[in-house]
Amino acid sequence: MIYLITGGAGFIGSNYVNHLIASNQKVIILDSLTYAGNLKNISLHLNEDNILIPATQKRLSSIRIEAESASIDFDYDIIAEKKRLADKTACFHTKQIRMESLTDEVKHLLIKNALVFVYGNICDSDIVSELMQISDYVVNFAAETHVDRSILEPDMFIRTDMYGTYILLEAARKSENLKKFIHISTDEVYGVATDHSFTESDPINPRNPYSASKAAADRLVYAYNQTYRLPATIVRPSNNFGPCQYPEKLIPLMTIKAIRNEPLPVYGDGRQIRDWLYVKDTARALDCIIKKGNIGEVYNIAGRNERENIDIVHFILMQLDKPKTLIRHIDDRPGHDRRYSLDDTKICEELGFSHTGNFEDKMASTIQWYVDNQEWWQQIIDYDSEYKVFMQSLYGSKTKS
Ligand SMILES: NC(=O)c1ccc[n+]([C@@H]2O[C@H](COP(=O)([O-])OP(=O)(O)OC[C@H]3O[C@@H](n4cnc5c(N)ncnc54)[C@H](O)[C@@H]3O)[C@@H](O)[C@H]2O)c1
Predict the structure, then answer these.
(1) pLDDT of res. 308
(2) How far is the CA of 141 from the centre of ligand 1 (A)?
(3) In CATH, what number is assigned to the domain containing residue 217?
(4) How far is CA 24 from the centre of its chain?
(5) Residues 120-146 pLDDT 10s
(6) What is the pTM of this model?
(7) Cβ of 247 below 6 Å from ligand 1
(8) 240 Cβ closer than 6 Å to some ligand 1 atom
């Protein structure tokens, strides 16, 4: 079976790719290597032949979306794009390829390789349709994923999370080979949990540009199942943690700051509640959904580990033997959702998924991963200019208390 994994160089995607390859599956990654995509996450499976750069990227210079009342031009800076690609692939051997040869080359490479990496954007219908034709399963992880970035600049979220999903769906419905389209949505589409944990039948009520664009994609996938009978299933995981998470999210950010003895910026009183799901458990749950999940349905994946953010921060400090005086409370995020909470009875009872291990051990091994892999994150925080600009724009001006 061939799996097309979009966003497979990102955090959850790369962990899932590593899991699939360990289970002897064949994988094609389609990833545009945004700031969050990192070839090092999958470097064990990369060699001199299997990173392909299709010539069609140039055509992305202008993507025009036409609707009845309006049209939008997406201008694309080719020079900046080329520089970014050169930086992102600097330590790797890449191969340019003509579009006409893409599918044959991928099929050929998959005979000897477990993985082929294709550099490309899910908004690029040419690449997407080529790869869709030769895939049995699609798992769509590709997305802009950081709530804070969506508040600063929603534009990319609408393009990738909504429009990109639409492009994938269009190609999927024309594919004769595709067995299942698995869409990775999020628990954030439900909005704030007040009196109960959300089940799959609860209404959605997203409250920030990230969760709203994810909710739009989630419902579009459902619409393609209902309207065109596309064999699609929607997955709503809670907050993931584990190795290879970009250092803007709570656990890697706080861990790295603590390792470096830097102040830890905590939003508001830090008492926002999230449910924490280990990324390797997400991989097991996805296997279960792909094998046994019903088409047209939604499955929550929870970790059953609801914790206040401040407790997570305290745990990290304790684990690294650092003082609580490193904590700095800063102004809260606008419209910060106070609590996310998921009920995952459905996947457990209907598909036989079970929870194993305990949260503290999984957290300890995650923190240890960041201690042991300083080169991985040092590269990002010291040399990635985009990271510096973002951290400055986000935390630079916040009031300290
Ligand atoms: N991280 C979490 O806690 C969490 C929780 C629930 C759901 N999710 C969802 O899971 C998915 C993966 O999340 P993550 O945390 O691994 O994200 P991430 O930000 O670490 O990685 C996203 C990946 O997608 C790629 N990408 C972005 N835009 C693209 C485009 N237009 N075309 C092709 N590739 C593109 C990036 O290069 C990167 O490799 C997302 O859909 C996210 O909404 C994440």
Answers:
(1) 97
(2) 5
(3) 3.40.50.720
(4) 23
(5) 999 999 999 999 999 999 999 999 999
(6) 0.94
(7) no
(8) yes
